[in-house]
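One chain is below:
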Amino acid sequence: MIIDSHLHLPVDYPDFPSKGAALKSELRCNDVDMGIVIADSELESVIGSVRDCTEIFRGSSMIKVIAGISPFISFDEQLGLCRELLRNNEIVGLKLYTGHESFYCTDDILNPVYDLAAEFDVPVLFHTGWDNSRYSAPDKMKELAVLRPQNRFVYCHCFYPDLEQCFKTLGSCANIWFDTSSVADDRKLLPKIKKSLEAAIAAMPHKFIFGSDFGSCSQKEHLNFAASLELSSEHRQLFMCDNALSVYNITT
């Protein structure tokens, strides 16, 4: 079984039903059994708000949804909606777009998000890396992990392109997992990233979750990259499927 744990709705379609159909078609073409779609924190977005995404995929056994949420956009109302969706088992996590938005992962304004996630035993995801990396840099993330041991955190993109700093700083944090979406985005960097990722998965096999960032990146290229990694069959099973099931409390 293969799970792609980091997907977004594709933008080049006229409406949300056609975006959802295109995403499902991509999974089938690439022999991916299940996907996790991450909604935007914006209330109106080409990749869909959490309300849009849950409506498209309600009742789907193939697609799970993660809610994007922003402390700057109708925060109390969105917290209330996420609580309702969590109560109804319609989302499997919450995502904060640190870097896309100007807040640090340690800011006190985010405590209601962390409290809600802990209450319903779901992870909180973070955008990391690239140009605005300071907002969820590994040292900040480690500080948060120590402050909030009751939470589970997913560090999306592994602080791309500096994976080595990510793993060195956060490898000892028991409540952080790594989502490898986007890491195959630049072919010039692949040899270095491959070496770092293989070593980290060998050392921490229960910490890694496959994702592609489809919608922005090629799912096929990320699957090919994952297939190229020199992993034991046990570690590959954890990476491509079992760790995601565990982190997101998904039953099949």
Summary: Residues 209 and 243 are 6 Å apart (CA to CA). The two ends are 10 Å apart (CA to CA).
